[in-house]
Design goal:
It contains eleven helices and two strands, in the order ββααααααααααα. It is mostly helical. The protein has a single domain, classed as Urease accessory protein UreF (Orthogonal Bundle), CATH 1.10.4190. Strands 1-2 form a two-stranded antiparallel ribbon. Helix 3 packs antiparallel against helix 8 (162-184) and helix 8 packs antiparallel against helix 10. Residues 1-11 have low confidence and may be disordered.
Length: 244
């Protein structure tokens, strides 16, 4: 049986499930989206700009999404431990969390892309853990969830603790950038692998900060105007490898 603690740790966590949720073959995996790198490359980003782009994503989009995933995980934990009674309402509900994310994501293209990925993640969770109360609640409250909210709920359903989830969320975004770069630009795979390791301090810092969040007031509102512009432009293109 899996049992998680509400803030920062857990017992009986599934390491394999954490690896699974970072698998590029998932419906929300790196084979289907580039974490915004493809539109950036189409706008002129070159090889030397990929690692700075990766770090910028971590500090803006990644930071916001990691906090959202952690808050969704805590809400899922509340629902799963309520045992049919009243929960304490400490974490924001899924609908409120989705509304807060929408308010912090000006680009409609980015919102739509996140929801496409989120639907895939929710479908995975519903298939693997059909009786999970948090998965059922998310389907009711936000049937088209964003990626971080669906990831947080799926992680809790599969026995991944919130500390592992926070790093998973950051790692998945970074590896999506790198995987796309290998398809879009002339990059040595060894160099690309080194970028992930080089970003480890930033990944750890963003993840650790996310674990300190307690409510929607702690959800960052960080702007990345060029990424937003590139995402909007990408929706107008008919020749592309990735949905986003």
């Amino acid at each position: 049986m899996t049992s998680s603690l509400p803030h920062g740790g857990s017992t009986g966590e599934s390491a394999v499930a954490a690896f699974l949720l970072a698998d590029s073959r998932l419906p929300s995996g790196a084979y289907s989206h580039s974490a915004g790198l493809e539109p950036a490359v189409m706008a002129g980003l070159q090889v030397e700009g990929v690692y700075p782009y990766l770090v910028s994503r971590l500090q803006t989009v990644g930071r916001m999404e990691t906090v959202a995933a952690v808050l969704a995980h805590r809400r899922a934990l509340e629902l799963c431990t309520a045992a049919g009674g009243e929960d304490d309402g400490g974490a924001p509900g899924f609908a409120a969390l989705e509304a807060a994310l929408d308010a912090r994501t000006p680009s409609a293209a980015q919102r739509d892309a996140s929801r496409r990925l989120g639907r895939g993640m929710l479908r995975l969770a519903a298939t693997l853990k059909p009786g999970d109360p948090a998965v059922a609640a998310l389907k009711r409250e936000a049937p088209r969830p964003t990626r971080p909210v669906a990831l947080g709920v799926a992680a809790r359903a599969l026995g991944v603790g919130e500390a592992a989830l926070a790093r998973l969320c950051c790692y998945d975004d970074a590896q999506s950038v790198v995987a796309a770069a290998l398809k879009l630009l002339p990059i040595d795979p060894m160099t690309a692998t080194g970028w992930i390791l080089a970003a480890e301090p930033q990944i750890n810092a963003v993840a650790d900060d996310a674990l300190q969040a307690r409510d929607l007031d702690d959800l960052p509102a960080l702007s990345a105007p060029l990424m937003e512009h590139w995402a909007e432009d990408h929706t107008e293109r008919t020749r592309r490898l990735f949905v986003a």
